[in-house]
Amino acid sequence: MRALVTGAGGFAGRHLVTHLTDEGDEVLTTDRSSGGPDLRDAGDLTNLLVDLKPEVVYHLAGQSDIALSWESPQETIRSNGEGTFNLLNSARVAGVDRVVIVTSSDVYGIVSSDELP
Q1: What is the spatial distance between Cα 109 and Cα 66, in angstroms, rounded to a whole number?
Q2: pTM score above 0.85
Q3: Contact indicator for 49, 91 with CB cutoff of 8 Å
Q4: What pLDDT shows up at residue 115?
Q5: Looking at residue 24, which CATH number applies to its domain?
Q6: 20 FRET partner, CA 20 to 30 A, in 29, 30, 80, 99?
């Protein structure tokens, strides 16, 4: 399978790339530190997906530092919210049928053990 991994340079991204490669998938990667497209730039993102033609996108890119999210909430919303929206819309335009969005448990906040299912 031809897979694109966004945020491939991060902790989880690196492990996912290794796993997909071991499974025999053709793995394409993008990461902010390697000069990949800014997810906030819808045009560049659409062009990337049209050019690469992945069958699936694993979306791991985003601002993940909780402290920084409180220090720069607007930038976090732009990176994570707008960036994810742009990715989903670009996938639609490019004809990518599957997008897997990866996140962390921190999106749920602090949950006590009695609140767990």
Answers
A1: 10
A2: yes
A3: yes
A4: 85
A5: 3.40.50.720
A6: 80
